């Protein structure tokens, strides 16, 4: 795994943990502010995951 891919992998894991913590704090229901935070985190997570994907050789 390249250094860049490892960085993306760590970042996606960190964001995933933040998403899980947000849901845990919210008790399964997000208010408007929490929903905006969730959307920001999921967008960042998706970008990090895309960075993990490498083209087959």
Automatic annotation (TrEMBL):
The protein's name: Uncharacterized protein
Species annotation: Streptomyces indicus
């Amino acid at each position: 795994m390249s250094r860049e891919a490892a960085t993306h992998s760590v970042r996606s894991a960190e964001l995933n943990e933040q998403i899980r913590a947000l849901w845990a704090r919210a008790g399964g229901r997000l208010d408007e502010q929490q929903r905006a935070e969730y959307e920001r985190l999921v967008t960042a997570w998706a970008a990090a995951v895309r960075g993990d994907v490498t083209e087959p050789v």
